[in-house]
């Protein structure tokens, strides 16, 4: 008896869930990096591991973000307060970038070996360098020993390498691996109790500054600690240090490669049924616009169920062109795969060429051309991934299909959203960490695909944000008066008219005017040239702005300026790392450059860090001497079984410095279109068949 | 002034509302939890008592799948045929693709198996009388990863069999030969089992590894696909 095939077969099912077994990874030190207590180890966290640490002791408190940028490179940014560094009760705020590079992994009888720098490039109060080796010796024990310089060479040094400059927080490399060198070491026991480890170390940090200017007493070089990880991703530590001090640590960690919810859990794709060999190839029906409209109206609800909206459509001969917005799926390649599968089921057999163009923020990006016969020949086959990549064509899209095409007629379109925001101030000029609850209302009135009016308003609900704000003494307080803007009342964060368009298939443009951000209003224009086939692009942005009033939502201060940058963007293709260099004139009129490195994971995780140096003197620059920061973005899809492009973001950096300050615009062009070039499609092509 | 700001945006996403209705969390949960739409009204259900009569009346290729460790089985119906590959789909549109009796793909189950390359004489992929089954074989399992090729796990497998026995699948007795297939690769080892009909090689029941994340799926063939 023939067994017919049927599309929708009802059955009762349960949701499926996969469980994952986690391997034990190195523990965290008091400063949030992989290490003992105050001393480092040569161990590395799992690739991509991202850890947020809050620590507190009598000598330092604050937060840090540690990111395992590469399998053998650990990076960590610290924003610490040293309460008694210059004198009792006179705190010093210290920012530092730590790097640790594992030269050798542990293997056989050989230990792992790493070299590292705390306070890299800045000779500040936390600066130190080290070479360290670690070895597992069985029974859960790991032994570590190393040589330290700087702070880590200050207790009972065994020698000296030249003279180390005084720690004055200046930029440079002259201090690296200079001055006294001392031995340190320790032991960690991963106990049979799950998640519990005990530590002991011999510290080479004499805490000289804290003893001279504060009340800290260094009575012993021996530190002892206990770490406990009750659940994966949450770790706490308690320490007894230097015979006189106690320290506490809380670390929250996650890993893009270890999603809480599997990224492909959900609804599967439509199966592809190939056409029979003698199918009807007649194309005469395609000439009628009514036919196109009929097909699109039939396709639209099917695709909208997957969060895909048809913006424009045209059928000519054996080809269908679709311009689509993907509002749900984090990976564009997955959306394209779902679309072509649906087309293969829904369209007449004579349609052979599927041309799909994703539209992002009103901009048509890259046209992805897939032949239906290739799809049918490749689906389910062992080599479907590489074969489909080889037969798919990518070209720069014109911004619109010809006028004769079917166009979605929904404009004007109004959207709004209401979101609570909970910023937490970890350190702010000695003030205790504060928690505020704000309510943000955003609205967008889109008059056409590229032209929209956007607004954003924030109101404090509870908290102390903006209290005790003091007026800056800076001659160009472009950011240093930021606290004055936090009035507690409603603040107009943005009210702009924005037009996104294309000058050519590979050249994108944006014009914005109005209240661009909370502190500045004016007009801003941007152009980006980035052909889809290349892994780099260049852009330029120019803005003429005037500083907005502090407590008048629509008023202005006197300060006006023209700011702008030329930008170079490079997707290295190496471990998802992207580089960006901006050169230009900043808000305070200073000339300089910002270098940004970002690692993006195929599942949407993103970790980036930037450094800005300008011709403004360190004294005028404000807190931190130069601008720097890190940010982390975690897609909601990573944590929940939802098809959504939403993400949760964390920023960690300098606020309030007048040097190196850029306009904070809603979304710049590169951010809008970077997911749609060939390099990005290649990295995520595995999702095409999902 | 130095300020470090943590934006707990996840909360905002969870609590957000907009002109499009509730936030994505609420919407998606509704989609998952709310009963199926009328077009999905069950005709045959794993929750109801499954009888051979219902299967025969159903008239379609049908398998029953269960992820090892889960309590509930799912019914999946043959929905697409592409060459030798048959894709079975559940009502939640989670898919299992099979080449013969070999699971070569899963979709929507979390930890997708993208595809499998098998030997031309793989008796699981191509029904073979059990006395002709090879002692060893190789396969390549492909999973999502960076780039079009993704991650490939290449395994070598050894097949052994036990004495013939009988298995009952929804009221039908099958005389079968139990096979155990032990597969290994760098860092991976798993064991598949098959109950195969000796004369035709038709596998009526199996437990097959489909990746680290899902583990094993147990398959009962309720009504095999045929091209007759």
Give a short synopsis of this structure.
The complex is a heterodimer of chains A (690) and B (228). By secondary structure, chain A is mainly β.
Describe this structure in words.
The complex is a heterodimer of chains A (690) and B (228). With 690 residues, chain A is mostly beta strands. Among the domains of chain A are: 50-254, Porin (Beta Barrel); 293-409, 2-Layer Sandwich (Alpha-Beta Plaits). Chain A has a 13-stranded antiparallel β-sheet with strand order 23-26-27-28-29-30-31-32-33-34-35-36-37, with no helix packed on it. In chain A, strands 1-2-3-4-5-7-8-11-12-13-14-15 form a 12-stranded antiparallel beta barrel. In chain A, strands 16, 17, 18, 19, 20, 21 and 22 form a 7-stranded mixed β-sheet that branches. In chain A, β11 (179-190) and β12 (196-202) form a beta hairpin. Chain B has 3 helices and 16 strands. In chain B, strands 4, 5, 6, 7, 8, 9, 10, 11, 12, 13, 14, 15 and 16 form a 13-stranded antiparallel β-sheet that branches. In chain B, a hairpin with a 7-residue loop joins β10 and β11. The relative contact order of chain B is 0.14. Chains A and B meet through α5, β23, β24 and β37 of A and β1, α1, β2, α2 and β5 of B.
**CATH fold-type name of chain B:** YmcC-like fold
> Low-confidence segments of chain B, ≥5 residues, pLDDT <50?
1-16, 21-43
Number of H/I helices of chain B: 3
Strand order of the largest sheet of chain A: 23-26-27-28-29-30-31-32-33-34-35-36-37
Please estimate the helix content of chain B: 10-25%
Mean of all residue-level pLDDT scores of chain B:
81
Structural category of chain B: mainly beta
Oligomer: heterodimer
Order of helices and strands of chain B: EHEEHHEEEEEEEEEEEEE
**What name does CATH use for the topology of the domain at 50-254 in chain A?**
Porin
What is the CATH class name of the domain at 50-254 in chain A?
Mainly Beta
N- and C-termini, Cα separation of chain A? 33 Å
**What is the number of domains of chain B?**
1
Radius of gyration of chain A: 28 Å
CATH superfamily of chain B: YmcC-like
Distance between the termini of chain B: 78 Å
Q: What is the name of the CATH architecture of chain B?
A: Beta Barrel
Mean pLDDT of chain A: 85
The portion of residues forming beta strands of chain A comes to over 45%
Q: Please summarize the sheet with the most strands of chain A.
A: 13 strands, antiparallel
Q: What is the C-alpha radius of gyration of chain B, as a whole number of Å? A: 21 Å
